[in-house]
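Risk register update: the risk of archive-format incompatibility is retired. Evidence:
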Amino acid sequence: MSKKQHTMILQSISLFVALFLSSTSYPQQSNTVSYPAEYFAQWNPVTVADMIDRIPGITVALETNTSNRNQNDRGLGSGENILINGQRLSGKDNEARDQLARIAFEQVERIEIIRGTSSDLVGVRNQGQIVNIVTNSLNELSATMAASATRYQDGNLEPGASLFFNGSYGNLDYRIGMESDPQYEVLDSIEESVNGDFSANDLRVFRQITDQTNQTVNSNLSYNISPDQTFTLNLLYQNADPPRDLNRTILQYGTTPPVVRREREIYDATRSNWELGADYNISFADNSRFQFISINNQLDQDTLQGRFRVSADDSILQDLSLRNKSVNTERIFRGVYTRPVSEGHNLELGLERAQTTLATQLDLSRLNPATSQLVEVAVPNALSEIEEIRYEGFAVHHWQLNTRMKLESTLLYEVSEISQTGDIEKSRDFDFIRPKLDYRFDITPGLQFQFSVEKFVAQLSFADFAANTDPRDEERDTVAGNPELRQQQSWRYTANLEYRFHEGRGVVSARAWLWDVTDAIGRVDATRPGEPLVSAAGNIGDGEVRALQINASYRFTPNLLVSGTSLMRASEATDPFLGITRRLVPNDRGYQSVAVRHNLPRWNLNYGIDYLDAPQGNRPLYDINRIDHLDSREDLSFFIERNSIGRLNLLARFDIRNSLDRGMCSDRFRFNDRLSIGTISEVERRCNERGSQYVVQLRGTF
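Archived output:
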C-alpha cells in the first residue's frame, strides 16, 4: 500500500471523527460491564478461574489480541488484557492470567469487563477488552490447594499439585504459591516415503517420550505505603528438565528382503528461568499519576542430543552429538506519567529502556566411519552473543469526544542498537516512528463500534541471528543464522462491532483486519559457495494479511452457556525460491470452535464440551529444497465437575482431553536441488498422534 493510500485512509478517519464532533449530547454510557461476586455464588465457585468460565463472551476478552505485541517480545509494551485491582502485574513470565486459579472466590468483590482502553488505566493499552479482577480488603488468610492425576496413552500416570496462599496483613496484600505441573508427553509417529519415481523408499515408526514436570514458585506482594502510594513486588522461579527418549524403527525398501534398522535418540535437557519485577505507583493532588516498573529475568536452556544406531544384539553406536546451549537475559525499566489536561482530555507520557542479551553455543559431532569415533564438525556462526539496547518513548492522548465517543492517539518513537559478537562481529542501529489511532463509538448502550489504524514493527527473534537446531526435520541437524535480518513492519487496520444482549445474556462480535506488510520474514537461501544447500530466516519482501473473526456467546437458560468462534484468514507473499504467490507464514486459514457449559445447581454438577477444528492445509512451508503441507487439527474434549462436596468448599473434576485421538499429519516434498531447478527426490507422509488424556483433579479453598 502506497504512502498516498495511507494518507487517504488517515484523512478519511479524521473526517469521520469530525462529523461526530458536532453531535448532540447523549446520556453517559459506561464502557465497563461489572459482575459482582453475588452473581457467581449460585454456582459455588472455588477460584476466579471458576467465576470467569460463567461470563458470556469471556473467551473474546481473554484471547491474545491479534493486533497486539506478542508476550515473547522484548520489552514490556502496553498490551494487557488481565488486570488485578486495575493494575497489570510487573512481570512477563509471571502473568496475570496464571493468577486466576490462585485467587479464592471469597476474596473477589467483582469482575469487570472494560470495553476498550481508559485514561484511568496507567500504561495499559488494548484493542480488545480488558478483564479487571477487583479483590476485597479482608484481612484473612486463604489457602487454595489442588491435586491432580493424568493418565497418558502409554498407561503412565503423572501426579500434579499446587498450593497457594492469599491474604492481607495490615497494608500488605500477598499471594504466594508453589506448583508442580506434569508436562509428560507421548508422541507416536509413522512416516511413509516414496522416491521421486514413486517407488517405495522406507517406512519409519517411532515413539518419543518427554518426561517433563514444571516446578514453579511465585509470589506477588503489594504494600500500600499510603492512600496514594503502592509498591508491588513479583517473584518467579521455574525449573523444567525436559529429557526426551526417542526410539525409531526404519524399514528400508530397495533390497530383498527389506532392511530393518533401529535408532535411538536421547535428549538430556535442562531449563530454568527466574523473574523479579517491581512496580511503584503514586497519585498526586492534581489527579496526575506516575508509575515505575522494573523487570529482570533470565532463561537458561541446555540440550544435548545423542543419536545411536542399535544393532540386532541391542548394542549401540553413537553417530551424532548435538549440543545447543543458550542464556537469555532481559532488563526492563519503564516510567509512565499521566494527567488530565482539560475537560475530556488526558495525556500520558512514558519512556522504556530494555536491554536484552542472548548467548548461544552450538556443538556438532558426527561419526567417522573409518575410525568409529565422533568427530567435531565446524558450524558457521555457532558461537554468538547478541545484545539489543532499545529505548521507547511514547505519548498517548485520550479524547472524550462526547458521552458516546472516544479517540485515543498514540505516537511512539523507538530506537535500538543490535550488536553481535563471537563468530560474527556486527552492529546495527534502528529507529522507527509508530503512530496509532483508536476510535470507539457507543452506538447504543449495548452496541459498540471500534476502528484502529497502527504502524506495527515486529521484533526480531535472536534465535534467527545464530546457527540453531531444526526440530522439524530429523535429516537436517542445524539451520544457519542471519545477522542481516531486518524487522518486519506493517500497517494494521482493524474494525470491530460488538453487541451485548440485555441483562448480560450474551455477546456477539465481528472483527475484521487488514495488515499491509513490508520486509516480511521467511526462509531465504544462505548457501556458501561449494557447500551444501542451507537456508536461514530472512526478509522476503512485501505481503498482506486479511481476516474476519466472528464470536458469539449466549446464555440460553440461566445455567446453559454456548459459545462459538470462527476465524477466516487469507494472506499473500511472494516466495523467494519460486517467485510464486503463497501464504504468509504463520497465517494459516483460521479455525472454528464451539464450547458448551451446562450447570446443574440442584446437584452441584457442571459439565461441558469443547470442540476445535483448525484447518492448516493450504498453508505450505517453503524452504530451499523442500515444501511442507500441514493438515487440519481437530480436538474434542469433555469435562464434568462437582462443587461443594459435603460441607467443604471443594471441587472435583474429570477431564477427557483429545478424545478423538486426532493427531497432526503433514506431507513433505524433498528436492534434489533448489526448488527452482530441482526435481522431487522424495515424498514423505507423516502423522503424529499424542493420544487421549484422562485427568482427575481435586481443588479447594480453606
